[in-house]
Backbone:
C-alpha cells in the first residue's frame, strides 16, 4: 500500500515535471522557420554564430538555373549547420555580378547598395545576437567584395565579427576530373557536379553542349594586370568549362568537402575568443593613435 502510493506520487511527480519541461524539440537551423522564442534558444545553442550564405542571380551556361550559386551554397551551409548548430540567414542574392548584365535573368545591384545592404544585414543579425557572422560565399564574382567588406568592418566599431569562407569543393582523394581544371570555373564540370547533388531536378546535362564554355582569350595582358572586362573578354556566354562531363560521383565528393569545410569553420569560429577582443582593442586605440605604445 505504502509502496504503491509512493510509486503513484513518483509517477505523478514525473508527469508534472514532464508537463513543465517538454522534451527539447529539434531547433530548425532556418532563421525564417524559428519562432521568436525558438530564435532565442537557437542563438544560445549556436553561441551567437550565424551563417549568411551569399550568392547572386546570373546565367549558368545553358544547363543550370539562375540561382545556382545560392542553391549550392545554401545546400552546403544548411547541411553543415545541422551537424554543428548555427542559425542560417534566409536566401541572400545581393552580391556582385555586374559582369553578367548582358545575359537574361541577371540581377546586378549597384556597388553602393551591395555594401549598404550587406552592412545593414550583418548589423541587424548582430543586433539579434549573431555576434559571429560567417559569410559563406557561393559565387566567384564575390571573391573581392567579401574580403573588402570584412576589411571595412574596421572603419567604425562593431560589436560583432565578420568571417568569410570561400567555395570549398576540392580536397585530397578527389575523383579524377574529365575537363581542363584551368577553365573549369563557371557552370563547368565541378560546379555542375555539385548542382547534381544539391538540386538534380534543375540540372539539364543534355543542354550543356548547346553553347561553348571555351576561353575566348580576347584581351591579352601580362599576369598581374587586372581589368574589369577580363571575364567578358574570356567567357562572353557566361559559361566557363564543360558542364556536360559533370558526374554525381564528383558532385558527392565536392558537396561533402564543402559541407565539412563549413562545419570546421563554424567550430573554429565558435572557439575564437580573440577576434572580438582584438577588434575592441583596435577600435579603442584607433580613436587615440597618439596613445598607442610605440
Ligand atoms: Zn557564380
Residues:
Amino acid at each position: 500500500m505504502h509502496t504503491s502510493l509512493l510509486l503513484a506520487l513518483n509517477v505523478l511527480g514525473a508527469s508534472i515535471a514532464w508537463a513543465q519541461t517538454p522534451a527539447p524539440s529539434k531547433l530548425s537551423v532556418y532563421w525564417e522557420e524559428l519562432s521568436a522564442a525558438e530564435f532565442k534558444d537557437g542563438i544560445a545553442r549556436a553561441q551567437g554564430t550565424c551563417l549568411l550564405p551569399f550568392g547572386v542571380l546570373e546565367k549558368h551556361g545553358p544547363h543550370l538555373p539562375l540561382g545556382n550559386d545560392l542553391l549550392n551554397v545554401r545546400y552546403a551551409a544548411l547541411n553543415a549547420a545541422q551537424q554543428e548548430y548555427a542559425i542560417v540567414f534566409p536566401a541572400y542574392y545581393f552580391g556582385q555580378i555586374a559582369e553578367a548584365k548582358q545575359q537574361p535573368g541577371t540581377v546586378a545591384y549597384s556597388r553602393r547598395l551591395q555594401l549598404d545592404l550587406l552592412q545593414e544585414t550583418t548589423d541587424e543579425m548582430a543586433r539579434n545576437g549573431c555576434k559571429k557572422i560567417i559569410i559563406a560565399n557561393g559565387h566567384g564574382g564575390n571573391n573581392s567584395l567579401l574580403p573588402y567588406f570584412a576589411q571595412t568592418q574596421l572603419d567604425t566599431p562593431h560589436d560583432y565579427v565578420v568571417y568569410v569562407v570561400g567555395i570549398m569543393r576540392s580536397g585530397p582523394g578527389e575523383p579524377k576530373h574529365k575537363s581542363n581544371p584551368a577553365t573549369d570555373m563557371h557552370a563547368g564540370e565541378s560546379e555542375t557536379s555539385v548542382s547534381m547533388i544539391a538540386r538534380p531536378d534543375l540540372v539539364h546535362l543534355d543542354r550543356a553542349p548547346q553553347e561553348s564554355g571555351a576561353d575566348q582569350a580576347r584581351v591579352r595582358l601580362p599576369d598581374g594586370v587586372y581589368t574589369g572586362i577580363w571575364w567578358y573578354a574570356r567567357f562572353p556566354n557566361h559559361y566557363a568549362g564543360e558542364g556536360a562531363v559533370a558526374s554525381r560521383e564528383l558532385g558527392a565528393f565536392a558537396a561533402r568537402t564543402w559541407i565539412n569545410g563549413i562545419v570546421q569553420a563554424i567550430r573554429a569560429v565558435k572557439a575564437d575568443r580573440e577576434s572580438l577582443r582584438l577588434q575592441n582593442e583596435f577600435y579603442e586605440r584607433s580613436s587615440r593613435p597618439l596613445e598607442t605604445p610605440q
